[in-house]
């Protein structure tokens, strides 16, 4: 790695939130209600056609923690009609102006406005708009079901051109990577104390995966990446955030395969930058990767379909032998043809 690349690489490694994570590898976990377990999972269950499955009971579910059955301590089913979540699931639409060129951002902005104005501007869920810019994140109005008000506000926004351009080559890619991962954590921290479930919809192609052929990653670098992976996992789960990746454009067969990094990182030696990619984090949180295609509003509607019909269960993790002990999670359903999407794992603490 050149001196210039190493300098920019250090920008990410020295981010304030990461420094806090390095001081303590065991982030605090909110104390649940007495009737609940220490870990809460929100899950969406669908049939073979992708439609939500209604009417399931606790006895239909088996939770496997590292392939061992775990006792479900609490269970709730929400169908959006008779059994509604209180508070309702909040949708955060984040428009990423950092990792895309001006024209795609402009198109995405118009498609988001189109979605907000559907059905006379009456939104099924409370929605807030976040703008991710080089100056940080800007929140446009508080969560509301008034789509017209949100669209009007968004229409007045001048997103401008990003200053971390592609001309900055690898150094710019490294900086955008760092800023983007930091933004995920900051949003999770900002809503962690708010009750209820949240769907964070990242509008844009996502940040670079830093899969440079000659990228030299030292053991110290891997320690830092591992700490960030653990921290982000904790923050998303504790804030009850499910992450979604949606984007406009054409599918590129040559795009780096994020699927290679979906397995949980069990040790420092296996930690790499792509483990923190947008699509990786979205899949691991129980969310979805949609697009790219030419109908962003339709992608958002598919996300909203996950907002009302879902199940929530909780459990207590077993005693851990060491800090940041990774545990794989699987949910099995005792009915044919059904699939559950939820968090794929967690980091246990002694």
Walk me through what this model shows.
With 350 residues, the chain is α+β, with helices and mostly antiparallel strands. It has two domains: 26-79 and 309-350, Immunoglobulin-like (Sandwich), CATH 2.60.40; 87-308, von Willebrand factor, type A domain (Rossmann fold, 3-Layer(aba) Sandwich). Helix content is 31%, strand content 24%. The chain contains eight helices and 13 strands. Strands 7-6-5-8-9 form a five-stranded mixed beta sheet, with helices on both faces. A four-stranded antiparallel beta sheet has the order 4-10-1-12. The longest helix has 23 residues, at 169-191. It is globular and about 50 Å long. Mean pLDDT is 87; it is low at 1-32.
Mean pLDDT: 87
Q: What's the architecture of the largest domain, going by CATH?
A: 3-Layer(aba) Sandwich
- The third-level CATH topology of the largest domain is Rossmann fold
Provide a count of the helices.
8
Pattern of helices and strands: HHEEEEEHEEHHEHEHHEEEE
The count of β-strands is: 13
Cα distance, first to last residue? 37 Å
Give the low-confidence spans: 1-32
Our count of domains comes out at 2
- Percentage of helical residues? 25-40%
The biggest sheet, with number of strands, parallel, antiparallel or mixed sense and barrel status, is: 5 strands, mixed
Q: Hey, roughly how much beta strand do the residues contain?
A: 15-25%
Regarding quaternary structure, what we see is single chain
- Give the class from helix and strand content and strand pairing: alpha+beta
């Amino acid at each position: 790695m050149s001196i210039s690349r190493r300098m920019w690489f250090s920008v990410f490694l020295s981010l304030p939130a990461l420094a806090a994570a390095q001081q303590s590898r065991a982030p605090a976990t909110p104390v649940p209600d007495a009737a609940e377990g220490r870990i809460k999972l929100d899950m969406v269950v669908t049939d073979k056609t992708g439609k939500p499955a209604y009417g399931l009971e606790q006895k239909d579910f088996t939770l496997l923690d590292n392939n061992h059955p775990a006792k479900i301590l609490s269970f709730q089913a929400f169908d959006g009609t008779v059994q509604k979540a209180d508070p309702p699931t909040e949708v955060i639409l984040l428009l990423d102006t950092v990792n895309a060129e001006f024209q795609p951002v402009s198109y995405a902005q118009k498609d988001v406005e189109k979605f907000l104005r559907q059905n006379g501007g009456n939104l099924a869920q409370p929605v807030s708009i976040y703008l991710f810019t080089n100056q940080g994140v800007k929140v446009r109005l508080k969560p509301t079901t008034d789509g017209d008000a949100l669209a009007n506000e968004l229409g007045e926004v001048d997103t401008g051109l990003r200053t971390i351009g592609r001309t900055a080559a690898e150094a710019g890619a490294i900086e955008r990577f760092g800023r983007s991962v930091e933004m995920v954590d900051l949003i999770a921290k900002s809503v962690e104390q708010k009750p209820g479930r949240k769907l964070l919809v990242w509008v844009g192609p996502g940040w670079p995966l830093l899969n440079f052929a000659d990228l030299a990653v030292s053991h110290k670098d891997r320690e830092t990446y591992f700490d960030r992976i653990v921290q982000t996992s904790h923050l998303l789960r504790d804030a009850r955030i499910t992450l979604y990746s949606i984007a406009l454009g054409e599918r590129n067969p040559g795009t780096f395969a994020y699927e290679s990094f979906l397995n949980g990182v069990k040790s420092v030696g296996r930690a790499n930058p792509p483990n923190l990619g947008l699509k990786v984090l979205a899949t691991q949180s129980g969310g979805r990767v949609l697009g790219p295609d030419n109908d962003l509003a339709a992608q958002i509607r598919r996300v909203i379909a996950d907002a009302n019909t879902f199940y929530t269960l909780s459990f207590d993790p077993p005693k851990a032998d060491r800090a940041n002990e990774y545990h794989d999670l699987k949910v099995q359903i005792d009915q044919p043809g059904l699939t559950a999407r939820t968090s794929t794992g967690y980091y246990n603490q002694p």
